[in-house]
Amino acid sequence: AKAAQTAVQQATAVLKDFYAKSAQATALAQSAQSPAEDAPETFDKPYQGLLPEGGNVVSFLEVVLTDFARLESETSTSEATETDAYDKFTFESKKDRALKENEKGHKTAKRSDSEQALAQTEEELKLTQGQLDKAVAYYEKLKPTCVDSGITYEERVKRREEEIQSLQEALKILAGTDLS
């Protein structure tokens, strides 16, 4: 638009200069002849061409120049607005990206901590499961002798009483042996 403005200004100046000079132009000049040979004057005033119509060309160029000036102004304003919007968008994008990078770092660290805790818990689970398996195996080994002896409660009570009685007899025998 700036280059077009300059070109229109130059064209307007050339046209104005041309019309100004044509208004001052002299009438058709003829070579010096005798008055008898002189023909009646055809032009009694300087030829100015189609000056009013030429003025319209100048007016048209001035309108074009005004349009180019308006276009330049609108373009400059639009560019400034768009530049501000771009700068704001860029700033917000950088800020948002930094925030997301920070969040990513925190989440990565949290994930690493969680994975480490999971590995430690799984190791503890293996150890505890191993201890439980050993305890269950030992329980299964002891179960037949302690719990499932195949004898009822009454029989156990009867055997216990017989054993207590035989131990008391053994005590009497030992006590009598000590006295003699």
TrEMBL record:
Q: Which organism is this entry from?
A: Spumella elongata
Ranges of biased composition (kind: Basic and acidic residues) = 97-114
Residues covered by region (Disordered): 26-48, 97-118
Q: Know the name of this protein?
A: Uncharacterized protein
Q: List the biased-composition ranges (Low complexity).
A: 26-36
Q: Please, which domain of life does this record's source organism belong to?
A: Eukaryota
